[in-house]
Design goal:
This protein has 14 helices and 15 strands. With 427 residues, the chain is α/β, with parallel strands linked by helices. The chain folds into two domains: 159 residues, Aspartate Aminotransferase, domain 1 (Alpha-Beta Complex); 243 residues, Type I PLP-dependent aspartate aminotransferase-like (Major domain) (Aspartate Aminotransferase, domain 2, 3-Layer(aba) Sandwich), CATH 3.40.640. Strand 1 and strand 2 form a beta hairpin. The longest helix is centred in the C-terminal third of the chain and has 23 residues. The structure holds pyridoxal-5'-phosphate.
């Protein structure tokens, strides 16, 4: 942010991403962004995972432009519209039916945290219990209910009030590998004197997006589901960041074979960066009374139009999914190579699918690298409790050339940062 800019003058200190990337951006296409001075950047942040299908995706853009040109209805509360009808039909035909998922869909307010609030409310209403289990390093949004389920101290500190109704449990791999976090939870639930109230639900991310790309093992997720069924606890998968194709399948939990009771989707659901959030849940859980959970912006028809186009273009068959799988293997291989080259500063690679990153021992190093790559034309962000993980979240539609270009920038920047830190050791 240059001194005297309108951003400094008028925009609150709460600004976040703009601090890492202090340029005024004006144009974007696919995996590329340009600033007002015509500088080009590769986008490995992709709206924190809201742009899985790239900026201004041509198929989605055409559908939206046609819709607007025909005076298609933009705002409609939750009234039935043609755009919503097509979105629901395509969700059923391309996503739910092929996966044997008998879910109903609730449209919530437009942001991810709105979907999480609705999911938690529903779980509490269905079970008549209040407590919810969430996991260390989980991130579920910043409105009060979702924030109570979020681990991050910095975000929790912003609440300004006590955050109630949740108990935290160690995520898979949080403690050393000999510690069985499912057994721990099972024991707490069964013990009358553990101090843990029987929860309404467990809310979990299969890969913790903001929490540092901690990845739950398939077997752990299966055991978590079993535990939930045993104690009649609802299993909520927050698939807001890991869903919508990010891991190569539409939902991130497909490979594990689990069927969550409730699923939240947002970020890349519209495919176009337009706000759209939904909660999917098993039909028998639909205990809402009409209008009981409401909201003015639950019918973003522009987002319905682009979401429908996305589902038709990319999820009619397995072509796209296989393509993402190939790219993710390439990404994994390259990150492993980077880790091997810089073993002494990189602790490990993390993640799954096209949601991977590298964890540095020293958070300051991760910060230096992110600043450095920006000067070389790459936008990428960090995650984890101390922002020690550099997270690759590029559009799934990125070309292999662009993917390699961005990773080359990342690799070179790490080397340069090392030279600057240890000029003698570098020779
Ligand atoms: C981003 C995110 C949210 C919150 O979404 P907002 O649109 O920022 O409210 C919730 N859960 C997960 C897993 C997320 O990544």
């Amino acid at each position: 942010m240059s001194r005297g800019s309108i951003f400094n003058e008028l925009e609150s200190q709460v600004q976040c991403y703009a601090r890492s990337f202090p340029k005024t951006l004006s144009k974007a296409k696919g995996a590329e962004i340009w600033d007002v001075n015509g500088n080009r950047y590769l986008d490995f942040l992709a709206g924190a995972g809201s742009l899985n299908y790239g900026h201004n995706n041509p198929f989605l853009k055409k559908a939206l432009l046609d819709f607007i040109a025909q005076d298609g209805i933009t705002h409609s509360l939750d009234l039935h519209t043609k755009a919503k009808e097509e979105f629901l039909t395509t969700m059923r035909d391309n996503i739910l039916a092929p996966r044997n998922l008998d879910y109903v869909i609730q449209f919530t307010g437009p942001t991810g945290t709105n979907a999480v609030e609705a999911a938690l409310k529903l779980a509490r209403k269905v079970t008549g219990r209040t407590n919810v289990i969430s996991f260390t390093n989980g991130f579920h949004g910043v409105s009060a209910g979702a924030l109570a389920a979020t681990g991050n101290k910095h975000h929790r500190g912003g609440a300004g009030m006590p955050l109630h109704g949740t108990s935290f449990c160690p995520f898979d791999g949080y403690l050393d590998d000999s510690f069985d976090t499912i057994k721990y939870l099972d024991t707490l639930i069964q013990d009358n004197s553990s101090g843990l109230d029987l929860p309404a639900a467990v809310i979990v991310e299969t890969i913790q997006g903001e929490g540092g790309l901690n990845t739950a093992r398939v077997e752990w997720l299966q055991r978590l589901q079993k535990l939930c069924r045993k104690h009649e606890i609802l299993l909520i998968v927050d698939d807001i960041q890991a869903g919508c194709g990010r891991t190569g399948t539409f939902f991130s939990f497909e490979k594990s074979g689990i069927v969550p009771d409730i699923v939240t989707l947002s970020k890349s659901l519209s495919g176009y960066g337009l706000p759209l959030s939904i909660v999917l849940f098993k039909r028998e859980l639909d205990v809402w009374k009409p209008g009981e959970h409401n909201g003015t912006f639950r019918g973003n028809n522009h987002a319905f139009v682009t979401a429908t186009a996305m589902l038709k273009e990319y999820w009619s068959d397995l072509t796209f999914s296989k393509n993402v799988e190939l790219k993710s293997r390439h990404l994994s291989m390259r990150l492993e190579e980077i880790k091997t080259s810089f073993n002494h500063i990189i602790k490990e690679t993390r993640g799954r699918g096209m949601m991977r990153g590298i964890c540095f021992y020293d958070p300051a190093m991760a910060q230096d690298v992110v600043s450095k790559v920006f000067t070389k034309g790459l936008i990428i962000e960090r995650a984890g409790p101390n922002d020690e993980v550099i997270k690759c979240l590029m559009p799934l539609t990125i070309t292999i050339e662009q993917l390699n270009e961005g990773l080359d920038i990342l690799e070179n920047a790490i080397l340069e940062c090392l030279h600057e830190k240890m000029p003698l050791a570098a020779e």
